[in-house]
Design brief:
By secondary structure, this protein is α/β, with parallel strands linked by helices. The chain folds into two domains: 141 residues, Rossmann fold; 174 residues, Alpha-Beta Complex (L-2-Hydroxyisocaproate Dehydrogenase, Chain A, domain 2), CATH 3.90.110.10. Helix content is 42%, strand content 17%. The strands form four sheets. It has a six-stranded parallel beta sheet with strand order 3-2-1-4-5-6, with helices on both faces. The N terminus is likely disordered. The structure holds nicotinamide-adenine-dinucleotide. Nicotinamide-adenine-dinucleotide binds next to helix 3 and helix 6.
Length: 359
Amino acid sequence: MCHGAAARACHVRYPFFPACGAGPGTGLGSIQSRRTPVRRAKISIIGAGNVGATCAHWAAAKELGDIVLVDIPDRVGVAQGKALDLAQCGPIERFDANITGTSDYKDTANSDVVVITAGMPRKPGMSRDDLIGVNVKIVKDVTEQVAKHSPNAILIVVSNPLDAMVYTAWKVSGFPTHRILGQAGALDVARFRTFLAMKLGCSIEDISSLLLGGHGDDMVPLPRFTSVAGIPIDQLLSQADITECVERAKVGGGEIVKLMGTSAYYAPASGTIQMVEAIVKDKKRIVPCAAYCEDEYGVSPGQKGKGYFVGVPVVLGSKGMEKVVPIKMTGDESKLMAESVSHVKDLVATVQKMFPELA
Ligand SMILES: NC(=O)c1ccc[n+]([C@@H]2O[C@H](COP(=O)([O-])OP(=O)(O)OC[C@H]3O[C@@H](n4cnc5c(N)ncnc54)[C@H](O)[C@@H]3O)[C@@H](O)[C@H]2O)c1
């Protein structure tokens, strides 16, 4: 028989094997007793709305770990219902994961990765920046709880306006900068690749690209770093066609808000889970993310501790943001990047003015 913490671990992880921890000759239980228990990654997703629930869906389908879906007490039934509904896909889609819904942050304790999607989405006619007042407050409250219960987690912020929310999560959590990331670039580059594939009539799989800067209108497209099966994009498409794809990617979120009356969620969640997967599998993937920069990309040269979270390519692995990958930019690209960084600085200044405790 198992006792104390070991027994609890058995019941959580291996309820099917009551012999766990027994002596020699008891089969699988005796093998497990000699090993340090290997546990699944624990992924908590805050906000069980469109983006949060879809993140849970992709994470479960990819069998990335156990999932805790959190919402406010008024919507705990929604979080629990979605978790149960998703768990019931397991036998069909063939994934093993404990999926729970809750409004109690104790259930998120010791998460490896926490995704923050709590907050209001855009309505038609709104810019992402219009959400700042209401969402800073939400992300602040949520981050306090997350940091208390999962002090070693890697945080991925999704709530908008993204760059301001990442800053808020950093200030409130006090986490080292490599454990704070924002999701925007993974989505924006996926949108750009989608529009290129539509234009070319080729497989999306063959298109590789990169971009920098803020979310949407502020993105810094990099057609020079875009290729199709290794062939530079400008050998396959005219400049006008490339520009059309860039412009459509920039307003890709707004296009969907106009159609649906709320913001996108399949692709934003997919981009977020690409980041989670790179972290929990220690893949060392290079993904454009909102990541902390000081000297990098000329964000705050020489100003220790006075950096900003901006969209740059980073190596994602088990430590979170493991490295900012530098690239050589042209004069035009540097100018666009400087404009994007300046917008992030303005957003952060607005947050600091509204919430002086976050300065
Ligand atoms: N970064 C991106 O690429 C990207 C893309 C799409 C949407 N977003 C942003 O993600 C956020 C969520 O969008 P959505 O479409 O899922 O909205 P939604 O309204 O469907 O879901 C938001 C959820 O957050 C919950 N919530 C609110 N306050 C909370 C709190 N204090 N604690 C826990 N949960 C709380 C709500 O109850 C709701 O269930 C928005 O801010 C949106 O703008 C970002």
